[in-house]
Amino acid sequence: MQRIHRNWLPEPALGGAVLAGLLDDAIRQWSNHWFVRTVVRAIDPVTPPAAMSDLGDGGYWMKAGQSLAIAVPTATQLGLAARMLDTSAPEASLSDADRGIVEELARACLDNLALRVAQAFRVSDDMSWVVADGGEVPIIIAPRALDVGVDPQSSLLRIMVSEDLLIERLKAGMPTAPRGAALPPIAVGLALQSVAVSASLGRCSLTVAEMSELSEGDVLIFDRDVHKPLALVLDGMAVIPGKCTIDQDDDGLRLKLVEPINR
Fold first, then answer.
1. What is 68-129 written as a DSSP string?
2. Domain residue ranges in the chain
3. φ and ψ at 164, to 5 degrees?
4. Residue 47: what pLDDT?
5. DSSP labels for 216-253?
6. By C-alpha distance, which of 44, 21, 62, 29 is closest to 166?
7. Which of 22, 80, 132, 142 could join 136 in a cystine, given CB atoms 3.0 to 4.6 angstroms apart?
């Protein structure tokens, strides 16, 4: 069986601008905390996200469950370290010790970004980030993506979010609907409802032909004695608790309860 994801929201409700709006503060604060002169920001929301199957030999994925992921290309680590130190150096000129420092700086910087992204989406503290090889593209159902960089032509990394998590975050940020007036108990609403109570005189069996031949003066014989207590009927349909007898009242009949209705 193949699962097909169908979104019930119109596209503008989950557009790239929405994702950028949710992460804008987190990315800006992260940039101010780590970089000296450079302003790193959300750029060029990608919908749908292009596949990033090749992040380079040193690239990797940071994943949190099946809802969040950050793609870190190889060049990003050196780019982040250079912006933190406000300097630049050709990658070929770096010694092994230099590369180790670059990796440590970049990892600390990205770990902090991951924390801020998780907080922006109000992800549970129990969810931890794991690092995966650059070739292991995360399986995220209906992903939404956002590039992060200095300018549209210089993307440093990509943040990917599942559509379900994005919807949950949007719903959580909506104002609570005002509480309406409480409905009264149903008994209150039914108290003034008019009903018709009658007595069930009994039944007699007739064919259609016999019924069509009935005329004034004919006698119908019912299957019960009307002088004994009779069942009560509500609105001519439902038999309800209680019994009554029939008394003559001048030209009319009077029902006299001999068993209470609400027993």
1. EEEEE-HHHHHHHHHHHHT----GGG--HHHHHHHHHHHHHHHHHHHHHHHHHTT--TT---
2. 11-172, 194-212+220-259
3. -60, -45
4. 46
5. TT-----SS-TTS-EEEEETTTEEEEEEEEEEEETTEE
6. 21
7. 132
The correct answer on CATH 3.40.50.1110 for the domain covering 194-212+220-259 is no
How far, in Å, are 25, 139, 163 from residue 126 at the CA level? 23, 20, 21
Strands 143-151 and 41-46, sheet pairing: antiparallel
Query: Which residues of the chain are modeled with pLDDT < 50?
Result: 47
- In this chain, the answer to whether the domains covering 11-172 and 194-212+220-259 adopt an identical fold is no
Q: Two tokens at 166?
A: 């994005």
Separation of alpha carbons 109 and 50, rounded Å: 24
Cα–Cα distance for residue pair 250/263, rounded to 1 Å: 31
Q: Are 237 and 253 spatial neighbours (Cβ–Cβ below 8 Å)?
A: no
Cβ neighbours for 59, distance < 8 A, ≥ 6 positions apart: 71, 72, 73, 74, 76, 134
Distance CA 22, CA 12 (A): 14
Specify the CATH architecture of the domain 11-172: 3-Layer(aba) Sandwich (3.40)
Residues 6 or more apart in contact with residue 136 via CB below 8 angstroms: 61
